[in-house]
Design goal:
Strand content: 5-15%
Radius of gyration: 23 Å
Distance between the termini: 56 Å
Shape: globular
Number of strands: 6
Largest sheet: 2 strands, antiparallel
Amino acid sequence: MDALFWHRLQFAFTIVYHYLFPQLTMGLALAIVVMKGLGLRKGGERWSEVARFWVRVFGLNFAVGVVTGLPMEFQFGTNWSRFSAYAGGVIGQTLGMESMFAFFLESSFLALLVFGEKRLSPRAHFASAIALFVGSWMSGYFIVTTNAFMQHPVGYGMQADGSLRLDDAAAFLLNPWALAQYAHNMMASCVTASFVISAVGAYWTLKKKHPDHAGLFLKFGTTMGLISALLVAFPTGDRQAKLVAEHQPTALAAMEGRFETGPMADITLIGQPNVAQHRLDNPIHVPGALSFLAYGTFHSDVRGLGAFPEDTWPGNIELLYYAFHVMAGLGTLMIGLMGLSAIQAYRGKLTTTRSLLWALMLALPFPYIATTAGWMTAELGRQPWLIYGLFRTAQGASANVHSGDVLFTLIGFAGLYLVIGVVYLVLMGREIAHGPEGHHA
């Protein structure tokens, strides 16, 4: 295999592994603010204990996220130097802002949250939680804006040497693709946090440990989960899909395994793309739904892959198709599970419904799988472009870094991340076993 394959595989591996941690911390940042706010009320001591527990979990995930994020950043220079030379004048702006503003703001106020509770007033400590939330979500916005430029480039100009420069900072930072993608991404991070909170509450309830705190976890987590899971689907997911239909029609066709152009386009629930014969095998369709969701009317034409040159098709249509359907399918299941659980929680019966408690605990991996599949959909759908319509992926890899070098470092990363993962799981297990601070002081 050529070096480009290994460059792409290494970046995919490191970024998928890294994002397991920020997707939880960004959602937890909002949850901690709400919990700290509830703790300021009269009689809110239990909410303060709950928030203290999740601050410790946040700190652990933040630390591992920083460690796993550094190799990913270095790859822009080691593995993708030609891409960095071409687009660094634009994407370097947001990557720099993420490091200078968001990262330092987030890390500074995390230290105050972890170590400063006895030195700060309750309201000052609550203000630190708000600052942590702002830093965490700013960090997410700068990263998403960088990716959105690669999906839908705006606000740029060309230098004399053919590289890109930033001409319109406002257009770049307020890219419509970035706004939609950011809203969708942050709601997905809230889904992840809500499932983790609910799973811990379900585990403690089944183990008959910390019943008061477990009940709070379940009610809070299922409420947050239902709201955020609905928002992931609509309006944020709907808006993202419409942008894909408008600006990346080949990606939309590949996501649905659609090869023919025409009106009353179906949404495919189940089927297997047969790229060699340009058809979808064994399909189960919802008639006309794709035309309506993508363009607003059932009679709108949706172009199939056959309407485009094959060299502009995504490189792995089968993987893109299945990633999209895994994301959409799990998203639907999560809405149903959180809806049923929230109803039972407000009826006061969730803690005694063992089947739902087991479902909430075992569903813990669902948002991680769905989010990973969603990012795979976005990145595979953009192919064969690194910057859509401007710069192909094959042009961006470092010319002097060969496949053997990349494979060697990939094996090293895999071994290192395995060790980090084991340590992380041990530390997370210890925190969950200890429970809220008031119970093991």
